[in-house]
Amino acid sequence: MLRNDQLDQWDRENFLHPSTHLGQHARGESATRIISKASGVYIEDRDGTRLLDAFAGLYCVNAGYGRTEVADAIADQARELAYYHSYVGHGTEASITLAKMIMDRAPAHMSKVYFGLSGSDANETNIKLIWYYNNILGRPEKKKIISRWRGYHGSGLMTGSLTGLELFHKKFDLPLSQVIHTEAPYYYRRQDDSMSEEQFSAHCAAELEALIEREGADTIAAFIGEPVLGTGGIVPPPAGYWQAIQAVLEKHDILLVADEVITGFGRLGTMFGSEHYGLKPDFITIAKGLTSAYAPLSGSIVSDKVWKVLEQGTDENGPIGHGWTYSAHPICAAAGVANLKLIDDLGLVANAGSVGGYLNAAMKDALGDHPNVGDVRGEGLLCAVELVEEKATRKALDPTRKVTASIVSAMVEQGVIARVMPQGEIIGFAPPFCLSQGEADKIVDATTQAIKATLG
Ligand code: PLP
To answer: Which is the closest atom of ligand 1 to the Cα of 118?
Structure first.
């Protein structure tokens, strides 16, 4: 086995890491952690440190680590048939079965699923299909996409544009001109304190409608949003938000893309966030929880309404000019089939709902009165603690103090991994669905102790 210092040196010399301060990492100025194994909700590094992963990797190891059912399905598929493509109508037992399992779980008005490999490429597919859709319908001007500030939809050229976080635009010449952003449904950071949640939702819908009218509804193709804002701060929508937004979209004949990369397959305690909040999307983006990250796989689910136009398009123009070599890769599909079956067999969606409710309530109880905790919010197994300088005024902490990063480091000392969300002073939690109440208590204790040790 290679020595840790050897791996550390090779890492810093050779590996360009995503979402990393490249200079500091290469120069050895920032810590690194080499993960070697994992089981349930725990990961272990090469030094033997065992940590409760309260972020499920990147909100993705939903079924938990070390699931032999999924590992065996991957190995069996690799031995039997490692690869065949899905172009020109080809399929495998795994990919066809998985498509059926997805459509059995999706809202009734959805029609078919296209397979990709990541949330980013699935959203890329969605936008291409939306442009194709409007070209087939003879409205070539209707192409702009509205996203929200603080939305996260990936980090490609189009998807990085859809993402509404500064870090993903700055110095990358993004967003592209076809993408425009509207207000985030971030009730805690509302401008007007006197607004109720419902009034704030109505305000967000009015802002959206004003933007559509400024741009011209005949130039706007679609609106994309996560049922619960994820990477932008784990922000559940205020009461009435999705109803108000959907009324505007319907009025102006604008398609809705529900990006369910985080919420799909159970994180909110329901199979889809669309079901949870009463969304009727034209596209649903899925990824992470589809295989619980045992293999890279994503999907674009299209509605009956969209499907009919796609069918018309290929009748008029020939085969759809879109596809990846690894679309519906059989090894990934086998992982998906085993994972969705496991989630059903173990009742993990219900567990995400009940333990998620417990975690959120316990976090509020423990921290709701702390003078530097402005907001504790969440839904299902998503939870966030937002830190402030002053509770009453919601005054922000000085970002140069890097308080949230210090707290999250202190939590690692307590044996728990949480995430510093990229914009604002927000600690994020998104544990695997197999979390127990005892493990939820451990997360809350570690957070409380780390906040008290850092801020008093
Ligand atoms: N959409 C949402 C809501 C996400 O949270 C993410 C990733 O976190 C993506 C899209 C992009 O997925 P990927 O990182 O697999 O490209």
So the answer is: 15
177 located within any domain: yes
Both 266 and 156 in a single domain?
yes
pTM of the model: 0.98
Alpha carbon distances (Å) from 17 to 13, 89, 121, 312: 11, 37, 19, 43
Question: Do residues 254 and 222 touch, judged by C-beta distance below 8 A?
Answer: yes
Query: Residue 208 is part of a domain; what is its CATH number?
Result: 3.40.640.10
Same domain, 153 and 290: yes
Question: What's the total number of domains in the chain?
Answer: 2
Q: Which of 345, 378, 409 is the last residue of a domain?
A: 345
Structural domain span for residue 273: 69-345
Give the distance (Å) from ligand 1 centre to CA of residue 258.
12
Ligand 1 pocket: which of 262, 263, 267, 290 to mutate (most atoms within 8 A of CB)? 262
My answer on whether 341 and 375 are in the same domain is no
- 312 within a domain of the structure (yes/no): yes
Regarding whether 49 and 190 lie in a shared domain, the answer is: no
Indicate the top mutation candidate among 152, 155, 158, 283 to test ligand 1's pocket, ranked by most ligand atoms within 8 A of CB: 152
CA of 397 to the centre of ligand 1 (A): 28
Q: Could you tell me if 84 and 56 lie in one domain?
A: no
pLDDT digits (tens), the chain, 456 positions: 889 899 999 999 999 999 999 999 999 999 889 999 999 999 999 999 999 999 999 999 999 999 999 999 999 999 999 999 999 999 999 999 999 999 999 999 999 999 999 999 999 999 999 999 999 999 999 999 999 999 999 999 999 999 999 999 999 999 999 999 999 999 999 999 999 999 999 999 999 999 999 999 999 999 999 999 999 999 999 999 999 999 999 999 999 999 999 999 999 999 999 999 999 999 999 999 999 999 999 999 999 999 999 999 999 999 999 999 999 999 999 999 999 999 999 999 999 999 999 999 999 999 999 999 999 999 999 999 999 999 999 999 999 999 999 999 999 999 999 999 999 999 999 999 999 999 999 999 999 999 999 998
Q: Which atom of ligand 1 is nearest to the CA of 263?
A: 3
Q: Among the three residues 318, 345, 372, which one is the final residue of a domain in this structure?
A: 345
Mark whether 177 and 189 lie in a shared domain: yes
Residue 9 lies in a domain: no
Distance (angstroms) between ligand 1 centre and the Cα of 309 equals 27
Nearest CA to ligand 1 atom 13: 119
Q: Examine residue 3 and state whether it is found in any structural domain, yes or no.
A: no
Ligand 1 pocket, Cβ-based, cut-off 6 angstroms:
58, 118-120, 123, 152-154, 226, 230-231, 259, 261-262, 287
Among 55, 58, 117, 120, which residue has the most ligand 1 atoms within 8 Å of its CB, making it the best to mutate? 120
**ipTM for the whole complex:** 0.99
With the CA atoms of 220, 222, 227 and 232 taken in that order, what torsion angle do they form, in degrees rounded to the nearest 10? -60
167: which 2 tokens? 């870090």
Residue 173 and residue 199 in one domain: yes
